[in-house]
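Protein modeling request. Please complete all fields; requests missing the sequence field cannot be processed.
Requester role: graduate student
Desired output: 3D structure, token encoding
Chains: 1
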Amino acid sequence: MASRARQKEAARHVGREEARLERKRRQRRVRVLGGVVLGAVAVVAVAIAFSSSGGGSSGLRTDNAGAKLAAQVQQLLRGIPQSGATLGNPKAPVTMTYYSDLQCPVCAHFTLNSDFGELLAKDVRAGQVKIIYRSFETATRDPQTFHAQQVAALAAGTQNRFWDYTELFYRQQGAEGTGYVTDSYLTGLANQIPELNISNWRSARTAPSLISQLQSDQQAASAAGVQGTPTLIFEGPRGTAQAPESVPSYNQLEQAIKSVA
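Delivered output (261 residues):
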């Protein structure tokens, strides 16, 4: 009798263990499915934001829409110091290095969303944070095109209009792989910046110093272990921190700032 009782108890124990393992398997499947769904939602959100920001296969706007975008950029940046690819007070205690590819749609989403605007309006405008843009090739499929577009923005930076050019690029970013970045497109963006001297901008596009800067950006990205764009790295008196996500919320940006300030 005792032996049969032990056998029954052992059988019940096996049954309970199998039920527990099955529950764990179900929970694991739910988590995986949830991750897939969240990833899909994120991709759709980026696509919607990208579409609403003016991105598309055609790229450059030459009608009144282009003038409105230029006015938006002027309003966003008005009163914030620029020097080359740096935006903000050069003596700001915290530096955010922003690794990006101008054709990267996620970079466009980050730059155009309200949280980046909030960072500019509060921390950068107040002189607490400055932003340094560094070029890192990811989305652009042709190295020569990447070189041309990034140097075109840096050339605008010789007149302290790098961020005007970059913001206009993101607002009129075309679809990946469509070959929309041509010399006409790059010149069209430059023409949308009222304060830019186009003749000087054309000359600057062949400046050896800008080509060296582009190479330096690539080397800095490699040294920092940058794997994709956008990558945001914060430096301050208390050390270095990296934003936890490609498109962080303002709260996440603030936490990174406070951790190094």
